[in-house]
Fold these 4 entries.
Entry 1:
Amino acid sequence: MTRSKITILAVSLLVLFSCSKTDPIPDPTPCPIPPTKLQILTQKTWQVDEIHRNVSGVNSKYIKGGVNTTGANYDVWRLTFNANGTGTHVYTNGVSYPTTWNFTGTDQQNMVLTSNGQTLNFNMVEINETYFYATSPVNNILESFRLKQVP
């Protein structure tokens, strides 16, 4: 064999045996499954962050840590939802009452909550990991509110 053929053979063998088998490509990390509305709703207690009210044509509002023209103490108002359809409602007077609740449609945009003998219909319900939004007509009162989770 000629010197050049021996050199080519040696280099080829060196390249062939110096290559290592590559590791297989790892499976991608699966994306986390976002929590459902029910999971978000039931994981913590909710408090009023902002509420706009219309009582017989007169508007008022409450903004936590700011203005309150409603005449009610929304600082103490709380709702707790349990996955079994029960919960608690702390009213503006600070008294806690047991509740029952349920979504009234498969889209989970309407809810009925009963507490202290009063039935509240929450419409246009939107729940995310930061806020709970809804509008509720009660007698001559229309309330549109935003709740946030108590830390």
Entry 2:
Amino acid sequence: MKKLEDREESLDLIHFSIIPWIAFTSFKHARRFRRADTIPKIVLGKVYNENGVMKIPVWLEVHHAIMDGIHVGKYFWELKLVVRQAY
């Protein structure tokens, strides 16, 4: 049996969570303030229909030292295309 390894010093990590039971309007992760936390964090919520439009809440937190708004914009653009294809 493989064990989960603590790889927080690795540069190829993303903390990704899915909460398919709720449609949230905001989200907050617990933080470790002992050191710089540059790992991007993404949370997806429950897909729901609002006035005939399928929606999904997405929360994204990034550290500005490693990512600019252009990167966040590109992520949301690609995510929007994927979600449209799925629904």
Entry 3:
Amino acid sequence: MNSGRADIRYLHSFLVVTESLTFAKAAEALRVTQPAVSYRMGQLENRIGTPLFERAGRRRILTPAGRELRAFCLRYVMELDALSGRLTGRPGPATEPVRIASVSGFGRYVLFPVLCSAPLRDLPIELVYETADEVFARVERGEADLGLVYRPKVSSYLDVRELCREELVLLAPAEGLELTAPTGPDDLEPLPFVTYEECGYVFGAWFEHHFGRQPARIRSARRFEELEEVVASVGLGVGLSVVPLDCASAALAAGRVRVVRLDGSPCLNAVYAITRSGAFRRDEIEAIVDAVGRRGTRRID
């Protein structure tokens, strides 16, 4: 390892690069030139004695050494703030909020109730609902510390782990639409459906699980962005829909909708937690992941 000392500015610049993902964006944030950023990263790599980044187009991906250095830098910043507070007698800085991006259905009906329960209800949280693609993008850009999605994604920027599973169900109005248990997609093609932003993946997973194939077409009677309107429309007799069970629990309890049960095993869909590769694992994030994971799979009989 090079015996020279690494300028503390290089560590700060390194953290900015890991958040910006490109030297050009890091240079803008640091208000220096791009060659200056490149020089600092080169000096830091010489000091550490191993590459910290790999190229992926215009982006920079952290190597294992880079991920370890990032974790060290984040711990250093937190410990320095704590030390400063102890030495000066001033309270340390307020805990940074945990920034969470989640697909809407899971976020509204599963994650939010968990966040409102002990011991998480006092945590500072910033929560946004997005499509799965935008959740991935927010985590990759460093705009979210934790993402929650229905489908995995292979990416060198992300750590993806299965969190829990939930049941996907065929929802029908409690009255007004005669429907027996379908034996194949063809039985459902003539019927109206209520569709929504993320329904492509959910519908596909349900049809593939139960029938092994997709219907030739889905007749959409209404389309909405959020699942609340979908479930309400099903209850009014507008059509059928396939939704995560948690989204319909209140309407089921009120008797406005019913679940159409099919023979065979239920369709259980995995929910994934995603974080940035190499990001410092905050205790608050692990507490949220553990609490949601302990909640487990929700089903009805």
Entry 4:
Amino acid sequence: MPQVSHVVDILKQFAPLELAEDWDNVGLLVGDPERPVQRVMTCLTLTPATAAEAVRESAQLVVSHHPVMFRPVQRLTTADPQGKLLLDLAGAGVAVYSAHTAFDSAETGINAHLALGLDLHGIQPLAVADSPHAADVGAGRYGLVGESVRLEELVARVKSFLGIPTLRVVGPDDRTVQSVAIACGSGGSMLAHAASRRCDCMLTGEAAFHTCLEAEALGISLILPGHYASERFAMEALADYLGEQLPDVRVWASQDERDPLRQA
């Protein structure tokens, strides 16, 4: 039976932690690396709902994209929501691993997956990583759609790939798009890189109001499907990958996880 450390080794090969941003908190964050593993759950974020699911379904390891304990923790008590969540997981013997920005930037990570899902060509890192893996990886991605398309057509591609009915857009429907930047999650800080690559459009999960105004002034369209939609699909793909690598382990993407934002 594999141990937590065995799964961690697979995850590190898939998304080397050297690719993570300096400010990030990645790796095995909770748990015993020598504990045997029979059940693994992936999720975008550890919330009371996803943590309860992991405990209920007897998972020994949760692979969450967003790290727990993102900022330094000085005390763990049940009076604090994160403290209760961590104590519940630790009490049930559930380990937690996060790759976060390493997974974003990996050769077959979230941004690369989004670029391929939009059928981009000549895909390259938007900002090259300073690491031994820098030939093929880095923060974000950009590529060409081939023949130029209208923005509304690219929007339709995003909706289809992510399986969502609506999203937000900056820029007119009839704007011509050929070069597209990709930055999953909250990627507004990548706008300058998109501009330096002369991209016509950038796909990111969410962006601040002033980032939208800046993009408009630069003539760069934005496609904003939401933070959740831009990353959650990858946790489902990761569960499939881990299941292939660990045929004797039950691996699933959280069934209780939901986007906290809804249309009203």
